Amino acid sequence: MSAVATAPAGPAVPTIGRARFGSTLTGTGRMIRFILRRDRVRIFWWTFSIVAFYLYFMAALGTFDAEAMAGRAALMETPSGIAMGGPGYGVEDYTPERAVANEGITWWVIALGVMSILHMVRHTRTEEESSRSELVRANVVGRHAPAVAAIATLTLVNALIAVFSAGIIVAIGGEYVTVADSFGLTVGVALASMVFGVVAFVFAQLTVHGRGAIGLSMAVLGAAFFARAAGDMMETHGSPLSWSSPFAWAQQMRPFVDLIWWPALLSVAVIVLLLLLGSFLASRRDFGGGMLAERAGRAEAGGSLAGPVALAWRQQRWALFWCSLGLGLMWFATGTMLPDIADLMRDMVESNPLVGAVFGNDPDGFVTAFLGIMLLYGILCVAAYAIVMGGRAKAEESAGRAEIVLARPLARSTWYGAQLLVAGIGTVVMTAVTVYAMWAGGVAVGDETFSFGDYTEVLWPYLPAALCYLGFTAVLYAWFPKATGLGWLLLVYGFVIGMFGSLIEDLPEAANYANPLYWVPEAFVESPEPSHMIGLGVAVVVLFGLAFLGFRRRDIPAV
Description:
0% strand
């Protein structure tokens, strides 16, 4: 009689049942809790900053009398006011709450749009790129759980900011501020911002690298801003071009004037469609890969690829290319508007003497004022690029690649210097693209108000100011690597002080000193002060010197 040996029964292997909506979403709740815990500090500062901006804006505008509000209304009817603010609903009876809606929606959508893009890419594509997502999915986590958790937490953060901001508006607003209008403003902004976050989710399925997804998403954000600005200048209260932009969907809700909710449905519809598209792409691509195949490299590296500078260039070149292309096209299109600005402003002066009192009656002065404002916003875009590139070294350190490079006979200062050198060159290139693209746009349509030499004189004072943003971020990374993101505070501070500092009574002059753009002369109007230019140059040298000193003294990795 033969016996068949059987192996002793081992412990039962637990089977993972399907989640309610399919096994691909298993573990979504745990991923949501993990993201909220991981980003709790970042979420707090984003919420605090946006809500504080609402609070400050409402409180400051509440101190204006009727004459001052009429002056602001006149500014909102100018081309630069329309481009930066919006279609200008309610300017005929301008009140503080209407000013908040007209002048603030664009900037809140930009700020929260950037936050949404960074959030989505950080918790999807960047996690796959760093291989952390692979470790997470080795656990009891479904394929789509990380992406759904990222979308859910982004929705939660935008909703949280919308609720707190609406509460602030209601709490300090006047008798004409209603709960419905307040939520109409903040919910419209939140939904428009979510559109750009979901755009980033789609690009995260197409590209292999997080920086590529961020770059493409930022390009869409910039294109949407330009479409809204150009469309609003074509036709009073917006044209069909305006309605192609999520910015317009928030503004066309007309809070505090004639609130309508249906434009918000456009944001909702686009969000749903993009989510479906992103889910479709995510289900059909390889984990860790993208739908767009990477070009195969050469079998042998050329001599030009040797060295830390070549490495830094390869890491930053595409960000520079796409940002230069996107912003260059946007500012070129801005330059093509110059011949129409004088006629448009002349008509406004004839119909509204208050506009003439603010801007004068010289057509060349109209063009100068418009160019000055456009250049200011252009340089703020360059400053944002400098801050992002100033953090590229941190990304290399976080991913562990910096340790591998520094394990070779390579000095720390050489590696970090290469990163800053390429970032600095990119900042200079972006500044030149911004200025000369406007000149090229004007030349293309026959505008001869200012020559190439005039634009060059405007360009060079902006260079040390833009490099200050890179240097400040580099200092934070070198000395306090976990606080590198605070580099954005310098940009936000400069924007708030530059745009709204005049609203604060008894604001000391010294409050402007920390703003690099404060020391730059007014474009096409003032000549550079030698002492100011020397001071900016010294500030750049000191900031970069402190960055090198701090980086040599600390441990790696420290992030």
